[in-house]
Design goal:
The mean pLDDT is about 90. About 20% of the residues are buried. The protein has a three-stranded antiparallel beta sheet. Helix 1 crosses helix 2 and helix 2 crosses helix 3. By secondary structure, it is of the alpha+beta class.
Length: about 120
């Protein structure tokens, strides 16, 4: 009998970057589509609900990193579609650099002898 994969909560501070990267890669999406794509990209190890995704989308819109407009979803329902703005593209690049620097630093602690640096 196989083990059931554990669904994890999204790490603090990473949801915004996941949303921005998803919109950068796929173009305009509605909130439900963004959430499902993030779950798929995580290999279904993350779970996002409405109480998680929509406040994050609203905050990103208020910060000017994404813009929204009403449209029709694939199942003919009215939905708000989100897209990356120019400021959002700059923010993705900035956060990507910062994330890489952070992971490079943390990785040093897992190298042999790294904890004694």
């Amino acid at each position: 009998m196989g083990k059931k994969p554990v669904k994890n909560e999204v790490w603090q501070g990473t949801l915004a970057l996941m949303i921005l990267k998803t919109l950068q890669g796929l173009g305009p999406l509605h909130g439900y589509g963004v959430a499902r794509r993030i779950e798929q990209t995580s290999g279904d190890r993350l779970v996002l609900n409405y109480g998680t995704i929509y406040p994050a989308l609203l905050k990103l819109e208020q910060e000017g990193y994404i813009a929204s407009e009403w449209g029709v979803s694939e199942n003919n329902r009215k939905a708000k579609f989100y897209k990356l703005t120019a400021a959002g593209k700059r923010q993705v690049a900035r956060e990507q650099r910062e994330w890489q620097e952070t992971t490079d630093i943390i990785a040093r602690f897992f190298e042999p002898g790294g904890e004694t640096l």
